[in-house]
Amino acid sequence: MNEIKNLKPECIWRNFDLLTQVPRPSGHLEKIQKFLLDFAEKAGVEAFQDPAGNIVMKKPATPGMENRKGIILQAHMDMVPQKSPTSTHNFETDPIETHIEGDWVYANNTTLGSDDGMGVAAIMAIMEDKTLKHGPLNALITADEETSMVGANALPEGELEGEILLNLDTETEGEMIIGSAGGVDVTAEIEYKEVATDCEDKAVKIIIDGLHGGHSGLEIGLGLANANKLMARIAVDIIANLDARLATWSGGNMRNAIPRTCEAVFTVPAENVEELKAIVAEYNDTFCNEYKGIEKGIVVTTEDTELPATQIPEDIADNVINAINACHNGVLRYIPSIPEIVETSSNLAIVSIGDGKAAIKILARSASESQKDYIASILESAFCMAGMKVTLSGSYGGWDPNPDSEMIKIMSAIYEREFGNKPIVNVVHAGLECSVILSKYPGLDIVSTGPTLEHPHTPQERCQISTMWKFWQLIKCTLEEVPEK
Predict the structure, then answer these.
(1) CATH 3.30.70.360, applies to 184-394
(2) Which of 244, 281, 423, 437 has the fewest C-beta atoms lying within 10 Å of its C-beta?
(3) pTM higher than 0.90 for the full model?
(4) Do residues 288 and 256 lie in contact, with contact meaning Cβ atoms separated by under 8 Å?
(5) Which residue, among 365, 410, 62, 406, has the nearest Cα to 219 in the 3D structure?
(6) Taking the domain 4-180+398-480, which CATH number applies?
(7) Residue numbers annotated as active site
(8) Residue-range domain boundaries for the chain
(9) Which of 85, 27, 81, 461 is nearest to 262 (CA)?
């Protein structure tokens, strides 16, 4: 049967199939938390939910291996809820529908949840397997990693035991990650009193759709289009030349996902409606040409809509739109010593304007603390000049690489022995929880690994079936070959 639970290794795919049946979007984790506690009880391992909402499991060493260094297996339970415009999926109630195409598993017009469901499924497989050989094991399955690493940041000190952390949230099989970027959320807000629209004007909705989107860390260096930045270009043009006025704007819905869609309603004098539509059509062609070879489906359209009763005051709208247009988005700098790796970036993730309030949310990342401060300052400056209140929150440091790690040497040797080639040891421009956990449990020897996933945080997310057995084999051998204390 064409079902993922029949794929190999069965122990991981069966558990991942179970996870797809449990709604677990960020911010709505009650069902998955209960599911994991029930699973642990059935598997006969100790488990509890800590005050941060994390699930912790503990499994004693195989007899005779009690003197091995303890391993903490770590993954996150939440998933990014993204879907195609035609999907009616409700992430808070509906299971993820999966299907197989060749060597890949996809979802039906939604994110798959393999980020980081595959890490959780691997932990479940380890906890229930009575034949594996291993030292003392802890498992930490964190809450709301995708929204400012809530579970890791609130992780209590002293609840975990171990000298080694295996993070199972990496997305390229054959890579072992030993460092990652830090990040900070930048939020700009302003409240305003709406003004009445001119009853003689017409209203036009501009819709930007079909963008690739993607992970704002791993895929920021691809030069993908940002729907909010595209809308800003159109807005500046039609306001300056057609006397258009902004009523509402909605673009993006996750801080760590490059926004794929954006909608904005503008009012405009009736005599300028057709010219506005012509300008938007020209932008459609311009954007498609600019992103040829990067974006395959950009579509910018207009539709007539009901004239809203109110809109944003002209001066505030101009200031906010100019700030959106001016603010940095994308790669700021590559690591000088590793020029193929992004060091510092920002993602203009969410723009929400209407009902008397404008709010802009940006995730800035950097492997350098000083550059993280710099990119945050750049963004703060842009929106302060627009008269907006800017708040920095959720800051976390980068994970400094340790090329002399004992575990990276052991795991690299295992990989070469088992698969006949050397793994790539790398740092990644994404926010892994390793740095936050390391700040609470200093001295941990940390390596991150995982199967191959593509296009996380988008409805095109997929997991490569053939990489799963290598991921599983590496974990099993690593557990068995952990050194003595």
Answers:
(1) yes
(2) 281
(3) no
(4) no
(5) 365
(6) 3.40.630.10
(7) 78, 145
(8) 4-180+398-480, 184-394
(9) 85
